[in-house]
Design goal:
- This protein starts with a helix and ends with a helix.
- A 4-stranded parallel β-sheet has the order 4-3-5-6. The chain has a two-stranded antiparallel ribbon with strand order 1-2.
- The chain contains 7 helices and 6 strands.
- The chain is α/β, with parallel strands linked by helices.
Amino acid sequence: MISYQALRRVCHFAITKPVYQGRMMSACGLKTSTVTHSDRQTDPASVVTYGQLKSMLASHSVQLFDVRNPDEYQAGRIPDATNIPLPQLENSLKLSPKQFELQFKVKAPQKKDDNIVFHCRSGKRSLTALEIAHRLGFIKARHYPGGYIDWEANEKK
């Protein structure tokens, strides 16, 4: 068991030393990381439910982007989703339409499109993806907060 004094030193170290946003650092053998998310509430208009996504997929009226890592995508995916891992998303959305189509084999999303949907495993990365897209001008983009976990659970019903 760690003593109060040792814990106090570790906490003091963690408070007084800089933390590099989004990077891993080690403090006395303890690994920590920081992830920055917006404090704002997600606008309900930016959210897609399972039923809505299912309808959009059935009518082929969705540009669905899976922002999970490639290994997660290969292990199981929502049909017709295009994998763009979150760390690559911003640069990918900045590509010219021709470059985007060559790289991802799908039509490039346009800033005015209202059928762009991001998803991940459980909704955290897709919310970050949504914030990136909105910041880049894709203001009508949405996300599926239930993610693949919710999709898989609903598909088994």
